[in-house]
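Tutorial handout. Part one gives the primary structure; part two gives the three-dimensional structure as tokens.
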Amino acid sequence: MTLDIISSLSFLDNDPRYQHEKPYEIIAGMAPSGWRSNCKFSSVPGLLIRDCRPFRDEFTIDKCGFEYHDWDCTAHLCYDKFDSADGGDLSALIEPYLLETISRVRERFRAEKVVCFDWRLRSRKSKLAEQLEPTLDKVRDHAIEVAHIVHYDNSQREGKRLFDRCMSPSEKSQYLAPGWRVRIVNVWRPINNVVLDCPLAFCDPRSVKPEDIVPVDKVHKDHVSEGCYLTHDSSQEWFFLSRQTRNEAALFVTWDNNETNGCGMIPPHGAFLDRNIPDGIEPRASIEARLIVVTKEP
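Part two.
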């Protein structure tokens, strides 16, 4: 049974100002609220978001940059603990899950090296996200809001910076040489038993035009990182996995050192609301792990 949905997604406006003024966002209260960003977004209604469950195995990282796996979650992930002000050291609660994920990713890619450099907890109705202003040093202390704006986690330039930051000089010299491939992979899964509220949608990158991808500066207290937003085009094709469970992991590439000419086979993504879901459904809660994956090329 296919559960295709007509819904809306939020995109960066195709504003002429971005031709001469780069989009930016100032993070964590570094400027008055009116100065935090020059980004303007609009919700685009009436989009067909196709359910890929009936042909789930046809979506692979090699073909479209994302795929799904039946990976049982043996770690104890309790959302109430994550969304509590007295939740304690969340890294200790998360570590077993991250170690399990590293092992699974190493096996999936037959990787030479896998490094988990970041993780996030998200919920559409996080109690603490409503109370606390997100800062770079607090972003892992509690669940944060889901990402409704269609985006890329990293630009090509930012992906290379993350690789450089996480690797030793000898590793950088080795793994950027011919015969090696380096990717950043996001492993996303629900903490809920089943996600009905606010699932994650992926755009097939083969349907994205290069001019639709807009780099954005994200200004932190001690550095500037770079991501990308997407402007809408009618050619874009959207997919999601209906009724995704906590034992179904979505893997997607957010950087690939082979993609020297842009985002190529990197899938933009964003959360959406299914208006057919009745009130009272458990709000989505999810966890994502971000990993550098190094493989030997044949």
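Part three, for discussion. The two ends are 39 Å apart (CA to CA). The mean pLDDT is 87.
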